[in-house]
Amino acid sequence: MKVALSSSGRDLNSQIDPRFGRCAYFLVINPDDMRFDVFDNKSSVLGGGAGIQAAQFLASKSVDAVITGNCGPNAVQTLSAAGIELFTGQSGIVKEVVERFKKGLLRPTNEATVDSHFGMAPGGGSGPGGSMRSGGGMRQGMGGGRGRGPGTGGIRSTDKDDALSGQRTTIKKGSGSASNDSELETLKKKADDINKQLEGIITRIHKLELGD
């Protein structure tokens, strides 16, 4: 049997990473003898679809179960389609979580615990970006929408801090379709710029963790 855990480090004494699709590493462990392989999570720097890509990667490694902190709806669907059991809500040291799994103390689920794009923005507790669904009731990060604002209609005015540049962006009520189209393009460009900056930051973090 193979069990994959989202990990913040490369060994059994590492902490569980609360993010699935954007965790730092995956440890694929045989619970019987605790032998394991460690994989860098290359999906963590993707602008979108990180959970799906991570789930497909683990399916290619023939894992039977995934243990993590939080998991979004797309990743849940992909894991379920691959016949992989999912255990969410876990935290602590990897080897201790595996011991709880071996004792049958974990319960599988087919429900997402966070929205899509959870973990996109830097900062803010265990899972920056996105919103918690089950139990927590708290919202974190950039508002769960990758910085794109409250939709394409511009129906409300929002003044928010740009998460990466410190600039302030004001989204005002549009006066017509031309104005809305212009505002939408501006917001899309800003979101793309933020995602590029974020990908660079995450890539640098991983290099620093590896001692590069």
Secondary structure layout:
Elements: E1 3-7, E2 25-29, E3 36-40, H1 50-60, E4 65-67, H2 73-81, E5 85-87, H3 94-102, E6 158-161, E7 168-171, H4 177-209
Parallel strand pairs: 1-4, 4-5
Antiparallel strand pairs: 1-2, 2-3, 6-7
What does this structure look like?
The structure is a single chain. With 212 residues, this protein is α/β, with parallel strands linked by helices. It folds into two domains: 1-144, 2-Layer Sandwich (Nucleotidyltransferase, domain 5); 158-209, no CATH class. It contains four helices and seven strands, in the order E-E-E-H-E-H-E-H-E-E-H. The protein has helices spanning 50-60, 73-81, 94-102, 177-209; strands spanning 3-7, 25-29, 36-40, 65-67, 85-87, 158-161, 168-171. Strands 3-2-1-4-5 form a five-stranded mixed beta sheet, with helices on both faces. It has a two-stranded antiparallel sheet with strand order 6-7. Strand 6 (158-161) and strand 7 (168-171) form a beta hairpin. Helix 1 (50-60) packs parallel to helix 2. Residues 121-175 have low confidence and may be disordered.
Structural class: alpha/beta
CATH topology of the largest domain: Nucleotidyltransferase, domain 5
**Largest sheet properties:** 5 strands, mixed
| Shape call | globular
CATH homology superfamily of the largest domain: Dinitrogenase iron-molybdenum cofactor biosynthesis domain
Q: What is the average of the pLDDT values? A: 76
Order of helices and strands: EEEHEHEHEEH
Low-pLDDT residue spans:
121-175
Q: Write out the strand line-up for the largest beta sheet, numbering strands in chain order.
A: 3-2-1-4-5
Gyration radius over CA: 19 Å
Assign the CATH architecture of the largest domain. Answer: 2-Layer Sandwich
| Total count of helical runs of at least 4 residues | 4
Proportion of beta-strand residues: 5-15%
The number of strands is 7
